[in-house]
Each structure stands twice: as structure tokens, then as C-alpha cells.
Amino acid sequence: MNETRRAILEALADGPVSGPALADALDVSRAAVWKHIEELRDADFEIESGSTGYELAAVDAYNGPAVEFGLEAPFSVEYHDSIGSTNDRARELAAAGATDVAVLADEQTGGRGRLEREWSAPSGGVWVSVVARPDLTPPEAPLYTLAAAVATARAAREAGVDARIKWPNDVVVPEGDDGSYRKLAGILTEMEGEVDRVQWLVVGIGVNANVDVDDLPPEANATSVREEAGDVDRRVFVQRLLEEFDRYRTDLESVLPAWRDLALTIGQRVRVERQSGTVVGEAVDVTDAGALVIETTDEEGADGRVAVSAGDCEHLRPV
Ligand code: BTN
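That is the input. Now the predicted structure with biotin docked in place:
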């Protein structure tokens, strides 16, 4: 956001301020203050003018300037009412050298999920992709995905949803205590890099926020914030999500403990379909690189431990 407009909003956040006082404080003309106020109104900031000056009545908008306003994390926000895929746009920005940009949309018409699946993204959800250029090696990159899962689950919990994490990066709401769940959010991380260095990462996060479950595909086994806890202020939700993501990506040692605290998968009997075969057993931990550790028992009763770094994970009912 333009620095003068940001400064005007910060000044108005503390109460009414007159046009001349703003002009003096910001060292610009009164005409310039008026023009910036009009531009902020065009961006849907509700600014009233009264006898004591300009006053910020409400920030109800869901757009780039509104999300950037009050955001305590170093991301700029590029907002679209409708876009094919925020991940596709974030990849373009990353390839052009951008960093710390969050591409946000109200609706996606070509949302992409993991394993080349489609991702349904109607208006009302939180569809966001973050471009980052971390100082990581490619094997460390999954930590960013785990950090995003923790951040998403924590933002959802603040919104009143009993959100947990299903390995590797689904945010789900448990149904009963047998490991069954409905999916609230998913994460798709894409990257470019060399063998020893990540060049850029795009972390795409899709949260079924203010969405009717009937508008999502039945096979998605989905739930939404609306279904679980009622509609959420998406501006505040995305801000909390980005702030938590920033907190964990800048303190990577705290990611795994936080992930374990929120994990629904640990302790479950699971089946993981990998390209190299299926593993069935009890999920007991996650490694530093984010791989799921599964304790298996083969047909002869011999125990083993397998660390699975990628695959489709299914929670099985206890035997
Ligand atoms: C999954 O669970 O399969 C991952 C879904 C990821 C969806 C998000 S929505 C924002 C971003 N843009 C996309 O096209 N996909 C991700």
C-alpha cells in the first residue's frame, strides 16, 4: 500500500483527525490528503468526515489494502475478485523475482489441489498463495508446508473450529474419536530450485471459510468454517493465517512441536499409498523432514518402522 495512505490509516485508527492536522503530520498538502482519503474510500475503507475531522468507521472490505492494513507480517497482498488459480499467479510473480507476496482471491475458477486434482474454490473461501524465497535446501522445504498447516489450523481454531492436522497437510475437523474427519483446508506447495538450494516456494492454502458445504463436491468430504462455527471475518482470518505462517517460518525449530500438538494422524492406524507401494500400520511420529513414521507389522508378525515422505494417507478404523 502507498506509504502516505498507510500513514493516514494509522493516524485515523486512533480517533478522528482533521485534514489540516493530517497534512501537517504527513508533510503533504490538504488537497493531497483529500485525494488519498478518496482513494481509501474507493478501496472500501469506511471513512466518515465529521466536525472533528476524518474518522475510520469500519474496515469491512476484503481486498489487498484492507488485508495489508493492520497486518503484522511483512507480506504485500495482491487481491483478485476472481482468478484461475492463485498458485499460478504466485508462480508467475516468483519467476519474475518477487518475494513475500500473498496472492489472494475471493473465487478461483481453476483451483488446483495435490496430486493433480481439481480444487473447488467458490466465492466466500480463503484462497491464498504465498511467494517466499527461503534459505533452505529442497529436502527442508516440507517444513514450510507443515508451518502453513499449523498456521491454518491455528487461525481456524481462533475462529472457533476444532481444527486438527491430517498428515501431511490437510486441515480437518474430527468426527467422533475414531480418526474420521471432514476436510476444512488443503495446502499445495510448489517450488523451483537447484539440488542444494530452494530458489522460490509458493505455498497455496485453500480454506473453506464462508462457503456452503453443498457447494463443494460431495467426494471432497468437506466442511467449512460456516458449517462449524458460523461466518468469519475473512480479512481478520487471512491476517491471522499470514501472521502465524510468518511466525513459524521464521522459527523453523518450533514447527514440528506445534505440528505434533495439532496432529490428528499420530496414534491412528493408517494406510499410505505411495508410488513405490502401500504401507499400513500405526502412525507414531513425524521426522525433522516431515516424513510420517509408521510402525508396521507384517504377516509373520515382524515389526518395522517406515518413514514415508509423500503419499495419500487414509485413517483406518481401529482394529
Ligand atoms: C489439496 O488438499 O489438494 C491442496 C489444495 C490447495 C488449494 C489451494 S487454494 C489456493 C491455492 N491455489 C490453488 O490453485 N491451489 C491452492
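The chain has a mean pLDDT of 94.
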